[in-house]
UniProtKB/TrEMBL annotation:
It comes from Rhizobium aouanii. CDD domains: NAT_SF. The keyword Transferase applies. Gene3D superfamilies: 3.40.630.30. One of its GO terms (molecular function) is acyltransferase activity. Keywords: Acyltransferase, Transferase. This is GNAT family N-acetyltransferase. The keyword Transferase applies. Residues 98-226 form the N-acetyltransferase domain. Its EC number is 2.3.1.-.
Amino acid sequence: MPHVLDRPIWSALETAHAHLAEGGKSARRYPPAIVPFAASADDTPESLDALENLPSQEESMILVESGPIAIPPGLAVITEASVVQMVAERRCERISDPRIQPLTEADAADMLDLATLTKPGPFTLRAQSLGSFWGIKSEGRLVAMAGQRMRQTGFIELSGLCTHPEFQGRGLGAVLFRFVAGEIASSGDTAYLHAYAANTSAISLYKTHGFALRSEMNMRVVKRRS
C-alpha cells in the first residue's frame, strides 16, 4: 500500500492543510504566497490536466513524490533534483533552551532574509501559515531558525533549519533541530524532513539525531509552456 508520505504534498493538502488548498479533487496546490508546492491526486489524464491548469503563465510549482513524476504536456520542467525523505526512528525528547524563542509575524521579514541568505528551501513571508517557527537571536538579530511545514495525519515536517554563516559552528542548528523535533513528538506526531541527496553533511547530522532514510524522492520545478 502507498505510504502517506510517498506523495507528501497531496497528502497534506487533502488532510491537515486542506483549508489552505487551491484546486479540486484532482489536483491541488498551496497558495504561491505561502509555498509553491503542488500535486495531482494520481497520474490519470484527468488529474494531470487539472495540475496543468493550476499555475498562471508566470508561476512555477514544485512537485515532490517518491516515484517517477508524471508531467502533463502543458508544463515544462525547469529544475529537477534528487531528494531524500527522513523520518524520526525514535521519539525525540522535548528540550528547553533559554536562547530559543517563538517567532511571530513581526519576525517574518528577518526570517525571509535569513532563508534567502542560507537557502534551506522554498521560503516566503507567509511561511508561518504552515506551522510554528522558533529562532535564536543575537543582540536582537535573528541568526538561526527552524520550524514546521507540511502536515499529514500522524506526521509533521521539520523544515526551514538554517543558521547565519557568521554563527555557524556553534551548535545553534543542532539545538534548534532537537527542539523542533521534540515539539513535534510532544504533539503525538512523527517528525520527518526532506534534504537534497547531495547534502551529505546535513544528512549525517540528521542521522545522529535519530532520523533514518525512509525514501528517495524526486523533485521537479515546473512552469507552463509558452
